[in-house]
Amino acid sequence: QVQLVESGGGLVQAGGSLRLSCAASGRTFSVGDMGWYRQAPGKERESVAGIDRSTKYAYYAVSVKGRFTISRDNAKNTVDLQMNSLKPEDTAIYYCTCLGPGGVRYWGQGTQVTVSS
């Protein structure tokens, strides 16, 4: 089992920045890719960014590329998402996720990000 706890969401004006953090606990020695998804009201959950265990490979949704940066610290079992130049369309609940033992995907409880225009 892996537990994920997010922090750092909030309300920000368009053009502003927020940093989301996610801390993993439990069987973290076998955690593979980690990343962030988001779900806006009335929309499906979508992938935002991900990073592999080596931290060599990161991937981003087209809509956030160049504005968001994902980072990972395996020693602390954390994954962060730095979000710059935020837009109202970035408003959503952001979920931390990881691939745990046996390839099972785990999810955090989510953190609300609201960007006002």
Topology:
Layout: E1 2-7, E2 10-13, E3 18-26, E4 34-39, E5 46-51, E6 58-60, E7 68-73, E8 78-83, E9 92-99, E10 105-107, E11 111-116
Parallel strand pairs: 2-11
Antiparallel strand pairs: 1-3, 3-8, 4-5, 4-9, 5-6, 7-8, 9-10, 9-11
What's this model, at a glance?
With 117 residues, this protein is mostly beta strands.
H/E element sequence: EEEEEEEEEEE
The low-confidence runs, each spanning 5 or more residues with pLDDT under 50, are none
Largest sheet properties: 7 strands, mixed
Mean pLDDT: 96
Can you tell me the overall shape?
A: globular
Indicate the structural class. mainly beta
Using the CA coordinates, give the radius of gyration: 13 Å
Number of strands: 11
Distance between the termini: 40 Å
Give the fraction of residues assigned to helices. Answer: under 10%
Instruction: Give the amount of beta strand, in percent.
Output: over 45%
Number of helices: 0
Describe this structure in words.
It is built from no helices and eleven strands. It has 117 residues and is mainly β. Strands 2, 4, 5, 6, 9, 10 and 11 form a seven-stranded mixed β-sheet that branches. Strands 1-3-8-7 form a four-stranded antiparallel β-sheet, with no helix packed on it. The protein is globular, with a radius of gyration of 13 Å. 32% of the residues are buried.
Quick tags:
117 residues, 54% strand, 7-stranded mixed sheet, 4-stranded antiparallel sheet, mainly beta
